[in-house]
Amino acid sequence: MKAWELLNQLYFERVSGTDEETRAAHLIADALKDLGVEAVCEAFDVTRNQVQKASLEVLEPYQKTIEATAYMGCPDTDENGLELDLTYFESDTPVSRRKAEGKIALVNGYLGRKTYKALIEANAKAFISYNGNIDYPINDLDDRELRQPLQEIGNIPGVNILVNDAMELIEKKASKVRITTKQEVMPAHSHNVICELKGESDEWIVCTAHYDSVPNSKGVYDNATGAVCLYEMIKYFKDHPHKHNLRFIFCGSEERGLLGSKAYVEAHKEEMEKIKLNVNIDMIGSTMGRRIAVATSDMSLVHFTDYFAKIKGFPMECSQGVYSSDSTPFADAGVPAVSFARITTSGTGVIHCRYDVIERLNEAMLLEDIAFIQDYVEEMANAYVIPVVREMPDNMKEELDKYLGRKD
Ligand SMILES: [Zn+2]
Q1: How far is the CA of 287 from the centre of ligand 1 (A)?
Q2: Labelling 287: which of 31, 178, 268, 370 has CA 20 to 30 A away?
Q3: Mean pLDDT in the chain?
């Protein structure tokens, strides 16, 4: 199968813990079996929530019921809902904090760790986030989740609404609202699809890419493209000799906080020592974009990647850092990791909504990106010794602590 064909086959919503995500896992595994290689699906536990009630009602100075979804992982309100004054938490300042005390706070879009921590410290009683872009013709209301590390800071009810409703709350000076939520959390499964191609040494290079998507998105750029890159590399390396062992992991549930790669690292702790490098791919093949490589490692891998790209004539910005993708759990387990992406430029493509569509991608670009990454992996896979320094420098340990919420 051609890369572009597999990309088209994966062109459907693949949300963590759903039947559709499982369908995608089987589709990938079957495509690998058709290549004549073995593929193993490793299941891991996730949760799904079933929302029974989620509403936001404006009580003063006008009355209106607004469509809302409940944050998975948040506590329910009581039956009658939570009726309180509304405040707009525009940014984390002492003034906004004082205004949020004892109230329901509307935050700007996505609720990140910093904002959530500020709300808890300010003693806000509930929160409202929104998604969408007021300038898009259509926005879909997203399900949102208060992830485990945020729950540990404190746990208050929350709902998500659409951007146009959020703007109306501010325009019409909504001052009092009622939030009502009730949901049930149910167990579910997600899968990592794993394929190994043995070499002659006892050292491993592990290549990763997530194949799940967020709700309301077919997630083709983010990140069916990365999954297709792994597939193409397997197709190549199964017939091309490589000295060191290669393992390819199509990760599930990345979009919910790197759950697949975290589960993999946790279940394979004793193997980490033999993994010398993780190469992760998350979003390639965009028509316009800038190529980046982010290495969570010491600087020698950054320099190597930079030199390699220059030698190959491939424009690429190389830096040291923590990339928000499946490379991070590996790096956190001490495995030097490099993530490759072609980040879309302003106005040429978006992710995490219905507008992540195949029309924004380009087959030639995708093949170029794959060819480069494959060259890079081949260089390492045939190294006399894998030269990567297997020690995480202090500045990266610190960044990992911050990213994973262990430090502020
Ligand atoms: Zn992604």
Answers
A1: 17
A2: 31
A3: 96
Helix (H) or strand (E) holding 116: helix 113-121
CA–centroid distance, 123 to ligand 1, in Å, is: 33
- CA 223 to centroid of ligand 1, rounded, Å: 5
Superfamily of domain 3-47+188-403: Zn peptidases (3.40.630.10)
Q: What is the mean pLDDT of residues 218-243?
A: 98
Query: In the chain, where are the structural domains located?
Result: 3-47+188-403, 62-174
Distance 279 CA to ligand 1 centre (A): 14
Rounded to 10°, the helix 225-237/19-34 angle is 20
Q: What is the mean pLDDT of residues 178-206?
A: 96
> What is the distance in A from the centroid of ligand 1 to the CA of 66?
30
Q: Please give the average per-residue pLDDT across 132-147, as a whole number.
A: 94
pLDDT at 408: 79
Give the pLDDT confidence score for residue 49 in this predicted structure: 85
> By the 8 A CB rule, do 237 and 381 touch?
yes
Q: Which residues pair with 49 in a beta bridge?
A: 185
pLDDT of residue 110: 85
Report how far ligand 1's centroid is from the alpha carbon of 45 (Å).
Answer: 20
CB 56 within 8 A of CB 181: no
Give 249 Cα–ligand 1 centroid separation in angstroms. Answer: 14
CB atoms under 10 Å from CB of 321, counted, come to 16
- Cα–Cα distance between 179 and 158 in angstroms, integer? 8
Distance 261 CA to ligand 1 centre (A): 12
Q: Which residue has the higher pLDDT, 185 or 298?
A: 298
Average pLDDT over residues 169-191: 96
Kindly give the distance from the C-alpha atom of residue 281 to the centroid of ligand 1, in angstroms, as a whole number: 8
Quote the ligand 1 centre to 165 CA distance (angstroms): 28
Distance 103 CA to ligand 1 centre (A): 34
Instruction: For 310-334, write each residue's pLDDT tens digit.
Output: 999 999 999 999 999 999 999 999 9
Rounded CA Rg of the chain: 22
What angle separates helix 299-312 from helix 363-381, to the nearest 10 degrees?
120
Architecture of domain 62-174: 3-Layer(bba) Sandwich (3.50)
Distance from the CA of 291 to the center of ligand 1, in angstroms? Answer: 15
